[in-house]
Design brief:
Strand content: 15-25%
Oligomer: single chain
Number of helices: 10
Distance between the termini: 37 Å
Strand order of the largest sheet: 1-12-11-10-9-8-6
Order of helices and strands: HEHHHEEEEHEHEHEHEEEHEH
Structural class: alpha/beta
Shape: globular
């Protein structure tokens, strides 16, 4: 099955245009203020607010955000990562072999509870199946599951047990494969591997490639696998990433005003492109017209049938009304571009790659 085939399974039955540009989000979303308060209450024994109460609050928040994604019109939704605190810490708490020794200052006044790998990592219980099943039960839209990738899980941890981070990353990739197999059994058909560390350490793209080979081993072709890589110099990992065994690449380009767009034009981009068309670093809602222009940037790289649109990255740091506005305008812009493609008002002929210098 091609990437196009497993993309079309997410096309709504009542989709109004002949063309289809899949709309989704990367993952995180602003948490309701009351959820943060619920976590504070759970940590304070004097309030009698326990783990079961917090779990109920997290379910309520996940349902609320999935429904907000529906209301915005997204084709594929997530739960906004309502149960997650940080992309490495969340998984490290669920993997045997990790332990925590306190927060580490990362920049400014921000701290990260950086975990240590103190023994061989092992798979204990599922990490995400319960949250996937819950989200799928409260929405009629397909649900995407983001998972922090093994390279980032290794790179952003203290390694006190393995000879090098490469060996640790490979063991973690085998665990991610186990988790995806359980998610597939539960009905998941769209998995996104988050590897923000890749573009900051591009010399290790071969390690990430081997990790991905392990991750997708024995995963059915109808399961869509995406790779999200935010920020960094993409020219240092392209075209090598085209060899990765994934269906789509999710790239942050709006924040850099598409300055790196030409990187992906030669050689031809042979995978599906999940293009960031709204800037998550700007707390203003782009107009529908601006997002339409951004979508057209994607059509310079791939034809419409290979294009997915989303925000550049997770939107958890934005005001909630801004995050929603960006999504709603993004969906409207995608539908407008589809209609213009149907009418023949958009020329999708892309320039051929420039010949290589002799």
């Amino acid at each position: 099955m091609s990437a196009n085939d497993n993309r079309d399974q997410f096309r709504p039955e009542d989709h109004e245009n002949d063309h289809f540009i899949l709309t989704t989000v990367v993952g995180s979303y602003p948490k309701p203020k009351w959820l943060n308060r619920a976590k504070e209450l759970c940590e304070d024994p004097d309030h009698g607010f326990d783990e079961d109460d917090l779990a109920e609050a997290e379910d309520d928040a996940a349902r609320l955000i999935a429904n907000e994604h529906e209301r915005a019109g997204l084709d594929v939704v997530v739960d906004g990562e309502m149960r997650r605190n940080e992309m490495v810490e969340f998984f490290a708490h669920r993997i045997e072999g990790y332990e925590f020794n306190g927060p580490v200052k990362v920049w400014g006044h921000n701290y990260f509870d950086k975990p240590s790998v103190v023994s061989e990592v092992e798979y204990d219980d599922s990490w995400l199946v319960d949250e996937y099943e819950y989200t799928a039960s409260v929405t009629d839209r397909p649900v995407k599951v983001p998972i922090t990738g093994p390279y980032t899980l290794a790179n952003w941890s203290f390694n006190e047990a393995y000879d090098d981070d490469e060996a640790l990353a490979y063991d973690l990739a085998d665990l991610v494969n186990e988790e995806i197999e359980k998610l597939v059994e539960a009905g998941a058909r769209y998995i996104q591997i988050d590897e923000p560390a890749l573009a900051t350490t591009p010399d290790d793209h071969a390690i990430v490639g081997e990790c991905l080979e392990r991750i997708v081993a024995d995963i059915p072709e109808e399961v869509r696998i995406g790779l999200h890589v935010c920020y960094g110099d993409y020219s240092r990992i392209y075209p090598e990433i085209l060899e990765f065994p994934v269906d789509e690449f999710d790239l942050e380009l709006a924040n850099g005003d598409y300055e790196q767009l030409d990187v992906f034009k030669d050689p031809d981009f042979t995978k599906d492109l999940a293009l960031g068309v709204t800037d998550v670093h700007v707390a203003e809602v782009e107009s529908v017209e601006q997002i339409e222009r951004n979508i057209l940037k994607g059509l310079e790289i791939v034809p419409p049938e290979q294009l997915v649109v989303s925000p550049d990255c997770g939107v958890k740091l934005l005001p909630r009304e801004v995050a929603y506005g960006k999504m709603a305008n993004m969906v409207e812009a995608a539908r407008n571009v589809e209609a213009k493609l149907d009418a023949g008002d958009i020329d999708v002929e892309r320039e051929p790659p420039a010949p290589a210098d002799d």
